[in-house]
């Protein structure tokens, strides 16, 4: 397996066009929230727009814009709120976020789309390694914030890529740099970056420690028929093109 790193919508689209599996990383907070929901047995339907989320036939609606909860929705993309709510197993949850759901949509066409974060980094890497063939390719995509880089997404991607490398996957140059930068970045930098300050300002400080805790939600959510569910380890398609 060869693993690469991509950034934002462009990275997701290029990875999908190249036939690579895609891991979408939005550590603060969509990827973490989706992982919690899937761990509790929910089906999570990602949609790009608030309008789609409002009309989708779901049991629960989760939405945020600018990190703030969408008025009238059940939850505001907070993994701690979702964890405490204990949404019933088998529920259908529709989710729309500022960044994560746009990147998921951009990855449409990829043979396999997974959700990754700190909380499930090892589980996602193991799922990819267990289902890989010699020429399998995967691109881990950091969502960023409205087209800009975000250190928490790059670090979570670095955590996943590091596990892939330890499991025998090769990394391209950009992925190796992401892993190196992650290992050199102190945790306190992630707790004081722009996204962290924004979440504190909106009253979501508890989400920060939750999102940064490694391997606390050991599931590998995979998009199947439009919804994220627990992955069943189907084979990942291979392609000879290079990841972005």
In short:
The protein is an alpha/beta fold. It has one domain: putative 2-phosphosulfolactate phosphatase.
Write a structural description.
- The chain is an alpha/beta fold and 244 residues long.
- It has a single domain (2-225), classed as Alpha-Beta Complex (putative 2-phosphosulfolactate phosphatase).
- It has helices at residues 8-17, 30-39, 50-55, 79-85, 100-106, 121-130, 151-166, 173-184, 187-191, 194-201, 205-212; strands at 2-7, 21-25, 43-46, 60-65, 68-69, 92-96, 113-116, 137-142, 170-171, 221-224, 227-230.
- It has a 5-stranded parallel sheet, with helices on both faces. It has a 4-stranded mixed sheet with strand order 3-6-4-5. A two-stranded antiparallel sheet has the order 10-11.
- A hairpin with a 2-residue loop joins strand 4 and strand 5 (68-69).
- The chain starts with a strand and ends in a 14-residue tail after the last strand.
- The model is unreliable at 233-244 (pLDDT under 50).
Task: Describe the secondary structure blueprint for this structure.
Elements: E1 2-7, H1 8-17, E2 21-25, H2 30-39, E3 43-46, H3 50-55, E4 60-65, E5 68-69, H4 79-85, E6 92-96, H5 100-106, E7 113-116, H6 121-130, E8 137-142, H7 151-166, E9 170-171, H8 173-184, H9 187-191, H10 194-201, H11 205-212, E10 221-224, E11 227-230
Parallel strand pairs: 1-8, 1-9, 2-7, 2-8, 3-6, 4-6
Antiparallel strand pairs: 4-5, 10-11
